[in-house]
Every structure is written in C-alpha cells, then in structure tokens.
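ok so I'm stuck.
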Amino acid sequence: MGLISQTQKAYYEGADGNWNSGDENYGDYQFISIKDIINNFIIAYVGEDKVISKIKRTDVAFHAQRALQELSFDILPSEKALEIELGPALEMILPQDYVNYVKFTWSDASGIEHVIYPTRHSSNPKAIVQDSDYEYTFDGSGEKQYANKSETLKAFEGASAADNNKAELSTSELFNLYRHGRRYGLNPEFAQSNGVFYIDKLKGIAHFSSGLVNKVVTLKYISDSLGTDEEMRVHKFAEEAVYKYLAHAILATRANTQEYLVARFKKEAFAAKRVAKLRMSNLKISEIAQIMRNQAKWIKH
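replied:
not stuck anymore, here's the structure
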C-alpha cells in the first residue's frame, strides 16, 4: 500500500493548478505529521499484550509535542531564517517563535554572507531618569521613571571606528588599546570587521553596531517546531527516535511500571536519538572529499 496519494500533476502544480505559485509542498514526502506519529504509536505500542496496556490520546499528544520540541533543538531541521534591511535604529525585533539564534549575517553586493559576531562588552540596562541634582524621578503612582534608551545603548549605536583616535585617548586608555590585541598579540575575538551585535533579552530586540546601518541582515534561528500546525512534523530519519522517546516518557511517568522496562526504553531512546542525529547530519563522502582536496595544495613562496 503506497503512501503517495496525489498525482504528479497535483504535486508539481499545487492546489490552484499553477506551476510554482507558492501553494505547493515540494519535498513534503520526507516528513511525517505529528498526527500520524500519534496514530502510529497508539497502534504499535498501546493495547492488550503490548508495552502500554491503555492510555489517553491526550497524554500521547502531550509527550509527542515534548518529543518534537526536544528533538528540534538537537536533531530536527528546525532552523529558520529571516532577512531585513537594517534601519537607522540599528535594531531587529526577534521573531515570534524565536528560541535561540544560530548566527547573524549581512549580505554584500554579491550575495555573500558575512558573519556578525556577538559582543560581550555592552548591554542595554534599564536607565533611570534623573533630575539636575542626579536624584531619581517618579511618576504619578510613585514609581521610578525609566528612559526609552540607556546611555550605554546610545553610545554603542553611535560609536564608529573614528572614535578610536589615539590622539584623544588618555594614558590608561592607550595602555588598554595596546594591551588588547597589539602589544601582546591580536585577540581573535576582535579580529573581524563585520560588525557586532548583542541581544536585549528583556525586550527581545537585537542591537547592532553603527557600521551595519542600511545593510541587509539575516537572522538564522532555532524554533521548537510547535508554532503552527504546519510546523508540527517530523523528518522520517527521526521517526523511530520519536517513538522511543514517547515509550520511555510514558512508562517513566506511570505508576507501578517495572523499573527494568523503563531502563530498557531509556537505552533504546538514547540509541535511536543517536542514530537519528547521524542520519540528519547529512554527511556526503564526495562532498567531504572535495573539501579535503584543499589540504593537498602546494603553497608557492
């Protein structure tokens, strides 16, 4: 019994019958929906003379979503990408389903991406509004007032390479300038000219250095695959890992479950996850060989 239920014409043209109009699901056969995962698990693992005698479908659905969430962080291809043109505010609001970033890049005129590295030496603290006597100001409710932007953020966004003019630096600043990456060698953390960023986790905004204004910036980030119904699907390379995760999670949370059974499925879940990770790594021998040919080049002096 085949799994493909649509004709090739319907696959290539989509629901509206127009070629490459955006409503097609190209490459969708590599995935299985979370609904099918739940149905298959209940059929294979639940029932008389099976590992789990009975269980509510809602319990299986809960653990299935947890499995999808956990595997998305390590195994499943849950990486997404968004591209914006960075305006004068030098800010990018994090996406609605953002969990963590993979990398920030900016694209040049040739479409080549340049990695933007994070900085550990700046932040956007909450700035308390003070009066001319440096005393805190309060609103009508007696609460402290805060500025929209901290002075630290304003200085970060307005800084440029020209601000490092050595003629304007004090003796201690000159010492630090030579100590960091000159007199004692280049600090790799600062050995790049692509700009820097940091994320204000309280506000959910990424801030960028001034050299990136009007650049096309791309955020590649990780989601948990639970944002929409269309996202809740599993790659077939990781399907078995989800089943084993479900079996272990359900058995480990049920009363009067024999301990050896929990330990058994814990080992099987770990092994299935490892196999899925190897499969999803998508290593190709021919591609590795092509890259490694670079090691055999002769360097002329």
